[in-house]
Amino acid sequence: MKPFLQEVAEDLIAKFGDKLQHCAIVFNNKRPAAYLQKYLANSIKKPFFSPSLYTIQEFFAAASPEKLADFYLQFFTLHKIYNQLLAEEGFEPISSHKFFPLAKIMLSDFNQIDIDLVDAGKLYSDLEDISLINQEFDYLSPEQYEFLSQFWTSYSEGKHKKQQELFIRMWRRMPKLYHKFHSTLKAQGYITNGAVYRDLAEGSIGELSFLKEFDKGQLIFVGFNALSRAEAKIFSSLQDLGKALFYFDTDPYYLEDPLQEAGLFLRKNIQQLGLINVFANQESLMARPHHVDVYKVQGQSAQAKILNNVLVDSYEDNEELGTTVVVLADESLLIPTLQTIPTSHNGKEVDLNVTMGFALSTSSIFGLIDLWLSTQLELLQKETVSYQNVEAFLTHPLSGLSHRKRDNIQTAILNENQVEIDHTRLLRQSGLFEVFFNKIENSEHVVSELIKMLTFVLTRLSNAKTLKKIDAELFVKTIQELNRLHDTFGKHVGNEESSFVIYLVQKALKAIAVPLSGDPLNGIQVMGLLETRNLNFDNVVILGFNEGIIPKSSIGNSFIPDSLRRVYGLPVLENLDAISSYMVYRLIQRAKNISLVYNNLTDESTSGEASRILKQLSYESGFTFDYHELNLSVKTEISREVKIEKTGNKFIQDTLALYLEGKRKFSPSALTQYISNPIDFFFNYVAGIKEPKEVSAVVEANEIGSILHQVMEYFYADLKGSEVTAEAIKVRRKKVPALIQRAFAAVMFKSPDKVIEYKGMQKVILSIVDAYVNIILTQDEAQTPFQIISLEQKVEADLSFSIHGEPATVKLFGFIDRVDLKDGITKIIDYKTGSDKLTFKDVPELFNTNGKNINKALVQTLLYTYAYEQFSGKTCVEPNLYIVKTMTQDGIWFKTGRQNLSGEFLEEIKPEFLDQLRKKLSELFESAYFEVSEVEDNYKYSIYKTLFGK
After folding, report:
1. DSSP secondary-structure letter at 316?
2. Number of neighbouring beta carbons within 10 Å of residue 696
3. Range of weakest confidence among 223-227, 368-372, 734-738, 888-892
4. Among 333, 778, 284, 812, which Cα is nearest to 598's?
5. Is there a common fold for 6-65+214-272 and 650-744+787-939?
6. Are residues 339 and 507 in contact, defined by beta-carbon separation less than 8 angstroms?
7. Residue by residue, what is the 3-state secondary structure of 267-294?
8. How far is residue 864 CA from its own chain's centroid?
9. Rounded to whole angstroms, how far apart are CA atoms 545 and 534?
10. Are 703 and 747 in contact (CB under 8 A)?
């Protein structure tokens, strides 16, 4: 079955022969030109002069003496004129940022008004009637309300009437805005695309000098369907002048049936407008037998996963994969498609040609650009850069930093907990740092500084010969676009805020894409539905064949309500239905193998239903359908308990031996971690897997404890060794706020003297610590007088035990918060800010890994007590626990039942405690495995849960 363009090529050769070079062939998009040239070459079989080939936009633009104005020139022109009109009415000007979303809608409406030859003044004046405004105002979508509310900063449900008044004023200035906008552009030698259409349609098109170039030939319009009023008028005029031929790709199935929406516009073109189709009276291709495979899949990206089966298994006898197309009705499926599409067939590599192109927004280059723009937005507000942005820069693949330099900078930031980094400090790092973190001085420098940064990166990659082809193309196209923006912005952004220019740059660059390598005439073609116009393929796969996608469910944002659109013949939603139906019918009418794939899951982007076009085909056509449901299997692994074997593991045995040799020491926290969950001890102290340190603006719970400890050390530093009285505490309380700030800076930034501007949560933390300090001081006042022997004192002690009956010794060490002397009794003071408890059941339960009564605080404090007694030679030392959250109610004594852990009872407990501790140490060195506790609460907050299967 011949493709449509091949039929066109053969007919053109038959009609014009050598005179074809004098013809202009016009398409509705760029893609068909290469195919037509191929078919012409195949038919002529010798060198020939090609006809001129245009898209309809290129053809009309070439016929216009003015240059086309790009979007940004149109926007700045419109904004300037709008503010002039506001000034004439006595209103304040509108900022660019607020006007931008409205301007996009206005420009779109202006363009539609022009290409459909609507009288703008009449259209807008029809909405001046307040009663009509009241009646029609509700057609605006929530998104449009949001635009308006940003624009006027006054919208709310309670201000509906005022909003209407503002809306009416805007409508009343539209005719003047429209005419002044176009005249201003023309005075500068520019014109909009819509105005080109209007000028050609309303002028004497036959007298245009541009068209005289083709007097020896013809103007040939190929494959058009939905025509604007301007196109229809121009085409009719050219046909009346005998200058034009029209090749419509039709089928009697939908052309002759007035109920078939696919033929709606073709019927208008041929039957109502009178355009003559060169290919009239063709047989119906839709009436021939067609087989369609329909695939229902679960999930958006899952649609692409069937491509391997469809493209290889279904077409394994097909030698020409150049006749295969994968159509992405939903263009977000491009990446999943590229990841799953088969790249070989019958042992041969298969080329892919992706006409949609690779988007800059999905590349690392855009990631760097976006990061630069975000950094500049920060620098507009302050002289520092957030650590998140600095970290993103350091780890970005295009930063070009050596591992050593990156690690050094990261380590410095971590050690200082630098939440905000002074940008001058970053500039001193040289290289890309100097360009990347250089603060832009004004809006005019935004684009030039970005070009400078990208050129620096491009040059470095090029010199290092590490520049990939696709990245090179993206760099070049991005810099070209930025140069174009620089030329456009240069005349307009002098008074704009830098933040708005950054916003515009980001918007502009997101639209950049470069074509992926591939032959447009061979291999598997991957394209959007619009790009398939005029093209035919034997094998057609359409992904995203969902309702709401084919056809689309919205015509886009517009201030012109549906009722007026219908009155003035502007596009309405039904037009999209007809256009989508035609594109699908036209694509499949010549195909041999058809596969339609849709997502059955309902989410924010799809309805979960197949397109109505599929339902219509299944009911009305004579096609045969096979329905397939693809369910992706989900593999689950059985949860398994992890235990680490010690026996025979040299690394583990050597590591544990370090403790026996005194080269490593046990801290109280290490021992309590082993007691609670032995496998945690392995990961932490044997394997050495630590929780990554992070810079954080948020103060964690353990850091609150560190700040409190530091404050108490500062508070009592001058009183150490002397008697502490209630009066002394009272006097020093006045210094607490300053001490807290000093401690905060010391803990969070490793700099006690750092001056900090406290904000938000930081102020809350200061208040919390202040409350905790005062609770402790109130408790201490009640204990006065007492003497402070030491603060944050490091103590060490040996502890003997046995391993398989043989004597062994390990070293214990720790830092005791405070040691007091009161009434001849030495007391160990341990501050706690968590949810620790003073109660315990009995000593054996303190060491029961599979029990629920482990009291870590008691174990740690008794270890401190033992170590201090060994270290100092003192006896009868008492442990006191200051749990700041509960000490006012519960006191400071450990207790079992009603008996406090003090005096004789304490001395009785100490030997039992040491006996149980020795047994636990023996277990550590004798047992065959590091295992997981049977009690979930014992590892509830473990950072290693994923490693041991929980």
Report:
1. T
2. 12
3. 888-892
4. 333
5. no
6. no
7. HHHHHHCCCCECCCCCCCCCCCCCEEEE
8. 50
9. 20
10. yes
**What percent of the chain is predicted at pLDDT more than 70?**
92
Is the preceding peptide bond at 668 cis, omega within 30 degrees of 0?
no
618-627: pLDDT as tens digits: 998 889 999 9
**pLDDT at residue 155, as a whole number:** 43
Reported as a pLDDT band with limits 50, 70 and 90, residue 136 is: low
Which residues, other chains included, contact 861 with Cβ-Cβ below 8 Å and sequence gap of 6+?
828, 830, 879, 880, 881, 894
Dihedral angle sign, alpha carbons of residues 237, 252, 525, 597? positive
Contact indicator for 398, 375 with CB cutoff of 8 Å: no
CA–CA distance, 860 with 273 (Å, rounded to integer) = 93
**pLDDT tens profile 334-373:** 888 888 887 776 677 777 888 777 888 889 999 999 999 9
Residue 17: which region, alpha, beta or left (left: phi > 0; alpha: psi -120 to 50)?
A: left
Q: Counting every residue, how long is the chain?
A: 950
Q: In this structure, are residues 817 and 829 in contact, taking their beta carbons and an 8 Å threshold?
A: yes
* Residue 777, number of CB atoms within 10 A of its CB: 19
The CA-based angle 906-911-916, given to 5 degrees, is 115
Tell me what pLDDT residue 562 has. 83
Question: Where does 650-744+787-939 sit in CATH, by number?
Answer: 3.90.320
Q: How far is CA 395 from the centre of its chain?
A: 17
Please state the rounded mean pLDDT for residues 420-428.
90
Whether cis (ω within 30° of 0) applies to the bond prior to 551 is yes
Q: Where are the alpha helices (DSSP H) in 89-116?
A: 96-115
| Phi, psi angles (nearest 5°) of residue 462 | -65, -45
CATH of domain 6-65+214-272: 3.40.50
Residue type, position 547, single letter = E
Distance of alpha carbon 325 from alpha carbon 526, whole angstroms: 6
Domain boundaries of the chain, sorted by first residue = 6-65+214-272, 69-197, 291-356+523-630, 360-514, 650-744+787-939
- Percent of all residues in the chain with a pLDDT value above 90, rounded to a whole number: 59
For the stretch 144-192, pLDDT in tens is 556 555 554 544 455 556 666 777 788 889 999 999 999 999 999 999 9
User: CB count, 10 Å around CB of 216?
Assistant: 11
Whether the CB-CB separation of 378 and 385 falls below 8 Å is answered with yes
Residue 708 has which token pair?
């409190």
**What's 443-483 look like in SS3?**
HHHHHHHHHHHHHHHHHHHHHCCCCCHHHHHHHHHHHHHHH
The residue assigned the tokens 């409190």 is 708
Per-residue pLDDT tens for 583-612? Answer: 999 999 999 999 999 999 887 667 789 999
Structural fold of domain 291-356+523-630? Rossmann fold (3.40.50)
Report the distance separating Cα 716 and Cα 743, nearest Å: 13
DSSP string, 783-821: H-SEEEEEEEEEEEEEEEEEETTEEEEEEEEEEEEEEEE
What does the buried/exposed string (b/e) look like for 325-358 if buried means 16 or more CB atoms within 10 Å of the residue's CB? bbbbbbbebbebbeebbbeebeeeebebbbbbeb
CA of residue 820 relative to chain centroid, distance:
56
Yes or no: say if 352 and 343 are a contact pair by the CB < 8 Å rule: yes
The token pair at 720 is 């150490």
Supply the pLDDT for residue 139.
55
- Give the chain's mean pLDDT: 88
Burial of 209 (0-12, 13-18, 19+ CB in 10 A): exposed
Q: Distance between CA 736 and CA 758 in Å, rounded? A: 16
What CA–CA distance (Å, rounded) separates 221 from 216? Answer: 16
Amino acid at 97: H
Number of separate helices (H) and strands (E) present in the chain: 38, 28
